[in-house]
Amino acid sequence: MGLFDRIFKPKEVENRGVVDTYFKMINSYSPVFTDYKGGVYEMALTRASIDTFAKHVSKANAVIKGDVYKQLQNVLNYRPNEVMVTTQFLSKLAIIYKAENNAFIIPQYEDRTAARIIGFYPVRAADTKIHTVNGELMLTYTIHDTTPKKYSIPYNEVGHLRKSFYRKELYGESNAPITATMDLLTTQDQAIKNSVQQSATIRFMAKLASILKPEDVKIEQERLRNINLTTDNNGGIFVYDNKYADMKQVDSKPFTVDAEQMKLINENVYNYFGTNQRILQNTATESEWEAYYEGELEPFLIELSQVMTNMIFNISEINKGSKLVWESSRLQYASTATKMNLWTQGYDRGLFTINDGREMFNMSSVEGGDVHMIRLEYGELGKKDEATTDDK
Fold first, then answer.
1. Average pLDDT, rounded, for the chain
2. Could you tell me how far CA 371 lies from the centroid of its own chain?
3. What Å distances lie between residue 313 and 106, 132, 271, 327, CA to CA?
């Protein structure tokens, strides 16, 4: 048994019966996901946009609320599965989500028959198919170990994140709308490369005074290059004889993409992924980070929290208050001055503890730091004499 066989402890399809057919939706769509040809993760700018999103998602912290499955909180915060730590798990999940608009979370069970979840594993949507087995909706997914292996699990046991969830009943849409922009990025890269290669290769154009056979032209070309274009010609003088009617030097100019055109292409990528150049280069202002958090990070973490809550808890446990919340404070992106001002104003009003303040600055908690304090110099309006001050 290989590593991934131990991780997934698969519930084999054969044990549930013969595959009936691929599950047909009401619009006759067969739910087999394929990603964009070439992949949005293969271009530098789109990869930077996706990786930046994933990097900040990976900072999230899991909190289990309620009285059941409390042991999963440490699992989620440190080692969701045997081959990933939490930052890697969240980062990969976020990359899959952005690159394919779909991402699956596979629960890992204690053994093949137990219902006790002990871990989670992210799976690409492009490696999945949905079908029915004895009338039950199943997800078959492929894990690319040394050799690809297929496993199956009931669809209602997995977590499924979806972006641009519109026409298809189970899968989010593809990244087809950005195909034209990807083609432009590719074309521009190729144009720059070809232009540089051409300008570096052709430096002179010569017109022969007489007609020569093709093989003689090749010989003459080599002779002229050996005389004038080698390191031996250290005088810098180019000479040719009357075999040539004309000789012109090619002015090699570096190819540059029109700035406005490049800006438009880049803006298309930024708009599609909800980001901008300053976010990617870590130079964004506090307000820009706030907007990025609310527009991109927070919605993803909310969906992830809801999806995994429904994976872990049944409806009865949810009704009693059990849930999983992925938290990533927007204060992570605030300036030091903003954090200090917020904590100072909130501490003496009982909103924050000392440890809350230390957490804002990524400092460890201290003993006795979880007590809420409040200033005692306020009183009800019109009853000044009853107010208590720090001097009393």
1. 78
2. 39
3. 15, 24, 36, 18
